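Deliverable D4.2, example record:
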Amino acid sequence: MADSYNNSNKAYRRSIMLHSTIRFIVCLLLTIICLLPIYIIVINSTRDTADIIANGVSFLPGGSLIDNISKLNDPTIQNGAYTDTYNVLIGYRNSLIIAGFSTVLTVFFSGLTAYGLTVYDFKLKKFATTFILAIMMIPTQVVSTGFLQFMVKIKLYDNYLPLILPAIAAPAVVFFMLQYMRSSFPLDVVEAARIDGCGEFRTFLQIALPIFKPAFAVQAIFAFVASWNNYYTPSMLLLSGKLEQKTMPMMVTAILSNDKLTDFGVRYLAITLSIIPVVVVYLILSKYIVKGVTLGAVKG
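Output generated by the structure prediction step:
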């Protein structure tokens, strides 16, 4: 009996180790697939055009990073070809203003909407939820013409406001928040707060927000990335085309679409600089995601 038990125990351990090894290999391959393109872009930003054309893909950095930075920022090189369309400080400033405010508005008001649909019972509750989900099915491009005409009529084109204020209505974020709250938010806490005399808005700020930090962090990352990478709406509304108004995607697109600017190292450098803020935001908010996963595991 003891031998059979030991043999079965060893077989079970081998099975566990085999499954763990397979999962580790799959995760490692997925990580490499996701990070390899970004790594190649960063490496190519340190190489010159001749090296990129002659040797193709390289996993070792080159020695032309300083030259690429000079070409990208020095107006005396190539008659200011790059500085007429690209300025990293201006691009960072404009994109951070738009993406930062849009992210805050998206996360806060979407969480507030989901909180109301979760906590309160009213006659049109199901209709409101269905209506929000229905709006998710409408692509932005379908309503873009009417939106542009409306902005022109109220004279809000060439302005950052129409790029920021519509972030208040984010149906996809509301849907995620709604599912998260329905599955993990204890309504008894709200009732207890009401008995203690806490106001409704104060209950949301002091009780609901701390509980939903992981969900808010996840949606903040998605909202920031979506707003930062958004090229379609800013290019449609910022009609003057001034460098002082352009966002990072507009500047990068201007460089990539210009056939006269064939310096591949400079192009890759422009792309690399546009990625850095997204990585920084993820690193800042990722700790809340990890905490949320750990908390869910403990509760389970």
